[in-house]
From TrEMBL:
Transmembrane segments: none annotated. Belongs to the aldehyde dehydrogenase family. Pathway: Amine and polyamine biosynthesis; betaine biosynthesis via choline pathway; betaine from betaine aldehyde: step 1/1. Its EC number is 1.2.1.8. The lineage of its organism: Eukaryota, Viridiplantae, Streptophyta, Embryophyta, Tracheophyta. It comes from Zizania palustris. The active site is at E258. This is betaine-aldehyde dehydrogenase.
Amino acid sequence: MAIPQRQLFIGGEWRAPALGRRLPVVNPATEAPIGEIPAGTAEDVDAAVAAARAALRRNRGRDWARAPGAVRAKYLRAIAAKIIERKSELARLESLDCGKPLDESAWDMDDVAGCFEYFADLAEALDKRQNAPVSLPLENFKCYLRKEPIGVVGLITPWNYPLLMATWKVAPALAAGCTAVLKPSELASVTCLELADVCKEVGLPSGVLNIVTGLGPEAGAPLSSHPDINKVAFTGSYETGRKIMAAAAPMVKPVSLELGGKSPIVVFDDVDIEKAVEWTLFGCFWTNGQICSATSRLILHNYRFLLLTVRALQRNIAKEFLERMVAWARNIKVSDPLEEGCRLGPVVSEGQYEKIKKFVSTAKSQGATILTGGVRPKHLEKGFYIEPAIITDVDTSMQIWREEVFGPVLCVIEFSSEDEAIELVNDTHYGLAGAVLSGDRERCQRLTEEIDAGIIWVNCSQPCFCQAPWGGNKRSGFGRELGEGGIDNYLSVKQVTEYASDEPWGWYKSPSKL
Ligand code: NAD
């Protein structure tokens, strides 16, 4: 299946990039080129920002920015309906472009539509939140609050959930009344360009959403430093997040950053082993292991460090747990993402493939044991495939424990006391997510409180709902997307204070009384 040949989407029209350049699209399952995307540059970003600004101001904002939320909600619902109508085609394109198993891409498309629907509801609810009164201590003043769109926003997104990550920003931004320029990842932009087509089909007012594909330094950097952008919302790596924050600083431009992670999953000795094994693997190997919130550090209960007499009284699950994990991991179907039942496809690019293999070889050279995986599967000669890897004999100084791999690689450290588990859990610069698996609810509650992260899963890992806020602590970024507050990321609050008395203010002496 070839991918559609698209141009940049600026001011409601397809437009060839100013410098006429294009980037190849490579199918990670076959390593074959399957098409091209436009390579936008600063000139295109300028045009897209100008189109977004014009859309914001059109008819003094009455058409979009100052229109009732209910008007914008209609467009968001129309987009959601089109996504569902085109679901199987979009899911196929997503899998071809980034290697995600087809079932997961289809799931993503449902989530994309659900997210547009959710923010359509919040756009309508915004109308009811307008002009909320503020109670003041003086009777001669009245005060109320307006929530207004922040303006033109730059949205920069990664490749692991190409259309879904874009939607997490586009839907709330448009619901709020902002206009936007989206810069998707150069490694997977195909479905975002199809979103442009959807916007054309539903008649979204021109310039409300503009999409400029291209390389990070050539298209992303000019967007993040653009003087006529009012906010930058970014999802991607910690390294790029720092650059974006620095680029926005001279103009005191607000940014929100959703960055990487190295999240823990703690498994206690009182779990049902089979259920816990499956969640542990899902937590790290879903989306081919390329999940920002992957619980890629398994912290596993093992009493082997305790005295023999104490040990004899405990249920020690570690050995069996590791054996069952290996058995389950080897049972995961690694195949072309379009093949029925695929549960792990190729990673997105050759660069990522080489990087992940290097992580595994470095772990080995530092003394860790590769229990299973970390190599190309024998039955797949082409494509960026890596068998899911489980790594033991890890210590906290190793790279594999400290750095985000962004691939199907799980590392394991064992603990014998809850205090020790907490130490290990928070032994990271990141703080996106964490999971605890245990039959003891009080213990789960204690860990929930003590894990320093923005998202905690109890007896599961990874489920994500657009109704709940998403985001991290520490070097995983700041701000929260999604949830009821998700729309507030794109709103600014205006207080309106009115003098409501017939009496003169009376602070200065009136000259007429002299
Ligand atoms: P990346 O930082 O390499 O790229 C992200 C985006 O930034 C891309 O569109 C890229 O073109 C652009 N970019 C690159 N250099 C830029 C620059 N100098 N200025 C402006 N834009 C620039 O990240 P990636 O490899 O696409 O994605 C993987 C990373 O994203 C991982 O670290 C992962 O954890 C993180 N991520 C986080 C979340 C979250 O919700 N916290 C979700 C998904 C991915």
